[in-house]
Amino acid sequence: MFESFSTRIQGALQSLRGEVRLTPDHIEAALREIRLALLEADVNFKVVSAFIDRVRDRAMDQAVLKSLSPAQQVTKVVRDELLALFGDAEGGLRKDAPTPRVILLLGLQGSGKTTTSGKLGKWLTRQGRHPLMVSTDVRRPAAIEQLAVLGTKADIRVYSPETMDPVARAAGALAEAKAKGFDTVIVDTAGRLHIDDDLMNELQAIKDAVRPTDLLYVADAMTGNDAIKSAGEFNRRIGVTGVVLTKLDGDARGGAALSVVSVVGVPIAFVGSGERLEDLELFHPDRIVSRLLGMGDVLSLIEKAEQAIDQNDAEELEERLRKNQFTLDDFRNQLKTLKRMGPLESVLGMIPGLGNMKQLAENKPDEKQMGRIEAIISSMTAGERRDHTVINGSRRKRIAKGSGTTVEDVNRLLKQFTEMRRVLQMIGQGARPAAAVKGMRQPAMPQGGFAMPGKKRKKGGPWGLIKTR
Ligand SMILES: Nc1nc2c(ncn2[C@@H]2O[C@H](COP(=O)(O)OP(=O)(O)O)[C@@H](O)[C@H]2O)c(=O)[nH]1
Ligand SMILES: [Mg+2]
Hints:
Elements lengths: L2 H15 L6 H17 L4 H15 L2 H4 L4 H16 L15 E6 L6 H14 L4 E5 L5 H14 L2 E3 L6 H15 L3 E5 L8 H14 L3 E7 L3 H14 L4 E5 L8 H10 L3 E5 L7 E3 L2 H9 L2 H13 L2 H12 L5 H13 L16 H6 L4 H12 L3 H5 L6 H11 L3 H22 L4 H4 L10 E4 L19
Parallel strand pairs: 1-4, 1-5, 2-3, 2-4, 5-6, 6-7
Antiparallel strand pairs: 7-8
Helix pairs in contact: 1-2, 1-5, 2-3, 3-5, 6-7, 8-9, 10-11, 15-17, 17-19, 19-20
The structure holds guanosine-5'-diphosphate and magnesium ion (MG).
């Protein structure tokens, strides 16, 4: 699911990343794409408008536009606002409930109530609970049989009285649970193709008889906005505490997930992603959003980076980049920040326009290589670190000796550094990053290490340029 939406929204955000300085025009262009992506994914148009307005408000903020990594900041705004669409809900069942807890599953016919009953039973069993299931779908004998089969498969007791009165069946199951020590009762109900009063009255009577803690509305994600409309109606007439979104494995456009909370006002509790009993997951808004943005790890890295880099440091660094005063000291400081941020991130990715974070994550220098780079820079004098051009042959020898490396290693590091500086200078002077790195063999640093233009890349990966022993 969500695939085309993901691709589009990622494309929009990606386009921002190519810009050194974001202008309101860039943001408007990206917002247009995101709006289309949302509408195409079948997200309710009111939700889309409100969403776009909120993102615009926050993204146009001067602090964002002027930050060291505007595109990433905008990505973060989009992420935050997508998360907000899902509310604060953690997913799952309500926190407190009497024992036995009663869970009522509601929804239109074919939405997946019976299947979800079985899945939920299985899920509860994994939580160490002892559920009892009952079907109240008396109009279709096959429905009662369907639940019985699921119960056998999942090894969950199904209460099957003689009576064909839905309310009596539900009430009987609750009494049975109390008597036999089941701690949860799952009540599967009948559905209709459309909402009708008969059904609503029946559900209300069941609700009154067994007083469920959780009233889960089961919505077929494939039916998109229709499912949401009737969710609203069920909520108004019976009361719904959570939504189970089923069939997310299909080619549902997924927009339903994004609008259900805003439109119906109840959180998503679970998502179903297949026909098997195992295919039920607790709903995690952050995971869905990460999947949408296609950058699960990367986004949390942005936060880590924000914590690791002092905003003032960042501004100072940016200023020096502009004036082409980026020194080996800065280079080393970046490495230290890199270390502080943990394994996946590189602060180089936060330098405007160079941030292909995915590549960085995949091509980070390992601990040994970083240690070596640090050792070399530490063996330089303060003067050498400020102005690398004074580092002549004899100084290189001394540095190599002091850092336990070879002159070759020192040469490589200096080459990488000067190349990086050259690119940064061009960017600082307003060149588009793509153009600035064009001369380089590899599309972006440090994907290609700081490889020299026109030269063959050395073996051992991008950071393997600094040999480890
Ligand atoms: N692919 C897929 N199919 C599902 C899912 N949940 C339910 N189904 C299928 O949807 C159909 C209707 O499900 P059912 O539980 O009988 O719906 P009910 O009428 O609401 O009880 C069945 O064929 C199920 O196998 C799901 O998450 N993914
Ligand atoms: Mg059913």
